[in-house]
Amino acid sequence: MFRFLIFLFSLSLALGLASCANVNSSGHDVLVDIANPFPYVQIGQSATTLKATVQFDSSKQGVKWALTNANIACSPACGTLAPQGSPSFSAVYTPPKSAPLNQQATIAAISEAEKTQEYAFTFTIYAPASITINNPFTSVLIGTAPIAVNATVTNDPSNSGANWTLTAGGSNCSPACGTLAPGASNLSVIYTPPATFPSGANVNPTLTATAVDNSSATDSFSFSILNNTSLFKGNYAFLLRGYYDAVPTAPPATAAQIPMAFAGSFTADGNGNITNVEFDVNNSGGITDETVQQSGTYTVNVGPTGIIEAIISITSFQFGSGLNPGFRCIMSADGTHGRMIELDQGAFLDSGDVELQDTTVLSTKPVGNYAFGVDSDSPFGGRTIAAGQLVLGAAGVTGGLIDQSYQANLTPVFVAQPLSPSAQSSPDSVGRGTLTMTIGGESVSYAYYIVDATHFLLIEIDGGAAFGTVFGGVARSQTGLTASSVNGVSVIQLTGFDVYPLETPNPVLPVVIVGQLTVSGGNAFSVQFDINDIGQFLIGEGASGTITFDPSTGRAALSAPTGFTTNFLNSGAWYLYDTGKGFFVEEDISTSGAVTPSSITNRALSGTTLPQTGAPFQLSNVSGNVIAGFGASSTPLVPNAALGMNIVSPTAVGTGKAGSYTSTGDLTSIATQSIPQGGKIPDGSYSGRIAFVDSTNLANGHGLITFQAPLLGDFSSGTAYQATFYMIAPNQFVAIAGISGSSLGTVPPYTGVIFVNP
Predict the structure, then answer these.
(1) Residue 452 lies in a domain
(2) Could you give the CA distance from residue 339 to residue 330 in angstroms, rounded to a whole number?
(3) pLDDT by residue (tens digit) across 77-114?
(4) Which of 34, 145, 286, 295 has the smallest number of Cβ neighbours within 10 A?
(5) Does residue 320 share a domain with residue 205?
(6) What confidence score (pLDDT) does residue 59 get?
(7) Average pLDDT of 721-731?
(8) Helix (H, G, I), strand (E, B) or coil at 4
(9) Over the stretch 232-272, which tens digit does the pLDDT of each residue have?
(10) What sign has the CA pseudo-torsion 480, 486, 490, 496?
(11) CATH number of residue 690's parent domain
């Protein structure tokens, strides 16, 4: 009992003494506080000076600092804490440079005057903040819509976001290079391109995002500000076909349209300048050979759906009429190809293709085996077509074959006729050279323009004395042909014409065919096709026959003894340059010189085939931006047009469930047609509908589309004409249009093949 009492007394005394020690002379407990604690730090972050205060410490002894984890000293793994001064009322905390095993630590300030009084806080050590811009871009067009740019910041516990800067050459460049505005969150910014084209370094600004929580964490990207003209840049070759509209100068002469071809090359520098222009014009035997390089200017329009149109003027050259040549090009999104139309104040009405050249091969002389197709429209004197194999060697033209037909001729002009060795020059710096095809002692001279290592364009540059022709066309390299190269499903498009004397005042009416050509076993073919022939617009026709193919020449001979009676043809020659790809010419005989609707007549049908890819097709396979070309037909009654189309695909099959399209572009037509603009309609707007009748036609890519009347040469009725098309691949098809069952004696609008995204 005694010992227990002594223990109780001792404990009571100790508690009493401790209580007295917490009170200073003012009678208050000592209080410790840290003015700037923090909930987290980041590895590698700059040091922080902590400040402590001690109230009611009359002895001014300051604090003792401690850095611990679970009450155990953790420095330097959790950072370092350096007391400042003596006595100390501050300390410098420096985060670690690498991640500790435990991400939490505690800093305490303990009163030196009274060790039981302290202030402590626990914080988390994070990896350094990092930032990534999610949607950088490489270029932007002046005057376009604002762009939202977003970033992601990792290890950002306070969600502080990002700061954004816009610089060029290391200095702020706004507003010359665009402007920045706050985005939808602290991790986004709105960039607005400038309305005018900047100069100097401002053309290539840099957009930088910096993490607010870590100023050393940045991400940036540089981009180019583009003028419209920069969207059309490179070396281009073109081939146009059409007519010279020879309007009479005095009565009683009548207007006449003379077939012509126009080929050449030019360089668009991206800044609105056209240089290195060379071209050849064959105006029904009148040759303009402009190999002295010319120059010009261009501008670029961007349509509401992003389709690019280049407007070109050759300013250093004038034709005899004193007019500068002018062109418009509707270009593909990648700028590699487009549809081109001559649109100036002259009387040339032609259109065709423009293609980006491979500048690495422009000065390389073509050698090897090529398949080629050329034709010559001469509606009041006959149409001549040809296809063949052209063999080129170091010495020039070393051989080949040609098949050639003449509209309404009793027999084909040539059937697999050998080509004789002839001259070929090396190309100049823009890819232009010359070559000669000699057949049976007759020669045709051509200029050629190289597009790339696989193909070049051809235009006849003699007076046409041998055959009365204005030939123009394409030659493509033959590669790896085998006996099976002829097999498969191809889309065929053919253009020709009939002459029917009762159809006045213009007895020449085009014949156009599009269809699906199927070859199997290397020796049999069938074709499903649509045709417009002298007012008969027939859909879903068919023919079949045999085929003989020689892979060494690429020549396939088609024979269908009853083909003409089923609205196709009895015989034809098809020169392939790859599987399913080739040039086709009709080789029918004509039963008599007098042409009647029931006679078997060579209609000089010629065209191309391309393998059908992507079948079975879906509704979404016709959607979005495409380019379209009209005209260059076998009659001048069909206008020329180059259009940019935007298609909204059908939502279901059935003619009552059609999709739609809108288009803008340029049109030219003969002056005697009823156009207030005198045959020229720049920047016209056209629309229509597109549909598939049923699921079978959808799978095969056989559809219906309408075209407004002016595109088909009707400038008064306001009618929307039906057309049919066959898909070659998604968003690529050929179509024909016209009027079914029109009466003879009235010339209805007809059209040649319409190419969409060729």
Answers:
(1) no
(2) 5
(3) 999 999 999 999 999 999 998 888 888 999 999 999 99
(4) 145
(5) no
(6) 86
(7) 92
(8) helix
(9) 999 999 999 999 887 655 444 456 788 999 999 999 999 89
(10) positive
(11) 2.40.128
CATH of the domain at 157: 2.60.40.10
Output DSSP code: residue 652.
S
Cis peptide before 252 (omega within 30 of 0): yes
Looking at the structure, do residues 256 and 325 belong to the same domain, yes or no? yes
Q: Classify residue 254: in a domain, yes or no.
A: yes
State whether 621 and 758 are in the same domain.
Answer: yes
3-state SS, residue 648: strand
End-to-end CA distance of the chain: 114
Task: Give the Cα separation of 159 and 41 in Å (integer).
Answer: 14
Last residue of a domain, one of 331, 357, 383: 357
Q: Which amino acid is at 728?
A: I
Per-residue model confidence as pLDDT tens digits over 622-632: 999 999 998 87
The domain total for the chain is 4
Give yes or no for a contact between 668 and 349, defined as CB atoms under 8 angstroms apart. yes
Please check whether residues 148 and 270 belong to one and the same domain: no
C-alpha 228/C-alpha 307 separation (Å) is 12
Tell me how far apart the alpha carbons of residues 52 and 84 are, in angstroms, rounded to a whole number. 11
The answer to whether residues 724 and 685 belong to one domain is yes
Q: How far is CA 583 from the centre of its chain?
A: 26
pLDDT band at 557; cut points 50, 70, 90:
very high
- In eight-state DSSP terms, residue 422 is B
What are 680's two structure tokens?
Answer: 């020229």
My answer on whether 142 and 218 are in the same domain is yes
Give the confidence band of 753 by pLDDT, cuts at 50, 70, 90.
low
Q: How does strand 40-42 pair with strand 118-126?
A: parallel
Residue ending a domain, among 357, 381, 401, is: 357
| pTM to 2 decimal places | 0.78
The reply to whether 618 and 752 lie within a common domain is yes
Phi, psi of 307 (to 5 degrees): -75, 135
Q: Which domain holds residue 709?
A: 612-758
Task: Give 3-state DSSP helix, strand, coil % of the chain, rounded to 5.
Answer: 5, 50, 40
The tokens for 253 are: 């002469």
